[in-house]
Amino acid sequence: MRVLVPSQSWIALVLISLLPIVPTIAVAKDNTGSAYAFVQKWITTYGIDHARAATMMTTRHRGGMSEAEWVDTYTSFLEYVKYKHLGGELISAEEEGHKAKVTLKSTVDSIRGPVVQYEIYDLLKVDGGWLIDYINILDDNFETAAESEPTPRFDFKRNELSPNHAPSE
Fold it and tell me: Domains of the chain by range and CATH?
């Protein structure tokens, strides 16, 4: 019986061919970047890759839903409204320990047309990586809106305004 033993040149060729993959795997597992860099990834993920977006949020931001439940609940809605984040300008970014706040002036497009808004992201560092914990969205008149209640958010599960975001009387 003849046993095939790979030559050293064949092993070297396989290792060299794997080199481009190794840095990609390391980067994918390295979530230690800045909060602003994380928000940049978020705005290019949310509304496009729903499963990935669900992993980028705390359970609180998902409204207590599991990742799978959030994907099931929001995928059809985001596709229906044709949500698309068109990018944002950094207004501020503050990191302190395991918390961060990033503010962007952004443009978002949907079936209602483009809207300029301020997005204030509260992030938490969990297991060495950032997660979206809360997003406060204000209209383009930031000075006025910042003094008022946050924009009401619709609770699609209950088909009503979310109690956390209901306007005060």
Answer: 32-148 (3.10.450.50)
